[in-house]
Amino acid sequence: PPLPQVQLVGVKRGDVPVMIRAQGTVTARRQLDLAADVAGRVEWIAPEFVSGMRVAQGTLLARLDPIDYRVVLADARVALASAEMALADATALKRRAAMNEADARVQAARERIRQAEQDLAHTEIRAPFNALVDTRLAELGQYLAPGMGIARLLGTDLAEVRLPVSAADA
Fold first, then answer.
1. Which residues pair with 64 in a beta bridge?
2. Residue 6, SS3?
3. Residues of the chain predicted below pLDDT 50
4. What is the reported pLDDT for 36?
5. What is the pLDDT of residue 23?
6. What DSSP string runs through 9-59?
7. Coil/strand/helix, residue 95
8. CA angle 74, 107, 121 (to 5 degrees)
9. Cβ neighbours of residue 108 closer than 8 Å, sequence gap 6 or more
10. Partners of 30 in the beta sheet?
11. How far apart, in whole angstroms, are the C-alpha atoms of residue 34 and residue 6?
């Protein structure tokens, strides 16, 4: 019987590019509906705070009118000074009950100062991460209440791509 003809082919190990055509959706891994922490009128908006623009983490996006929060902070500092003076008087007179009450007032005044400083800091609205401004909701002169939406931010550091792949391509 005739013998079959055989041809030898050398095989080399390597990467083989695979081409798959597909359409899908790119979504940001981090999405945030940015909201106001404190109430106030929007007195300034950054030029780059517009839909479609990229902003870096920590970028100042908008500023609320801080005057009310500065007044509260000043009042809290006055209350602390008064409480410290009352504590010093009670200590000098060695009145135990008055000392305890004055000490409690000093602690409360310090906490009010801490809260007032935090509220004042929240009048500056900053980007919490590198983002793309998807939608800006706040406008110059608008009054914002706590929890009111300012913008929708989409993180730019990580994205997820979803592609449907057919069984034949898989």
1. 42
2. coil
3. none
4. 96
5. 87
6. ----------------EEEES-EEEEE-SS-EEEEEE-TT-STT-EE-TT-
7. coil
8. 45
9. 83
10. none
11. 70
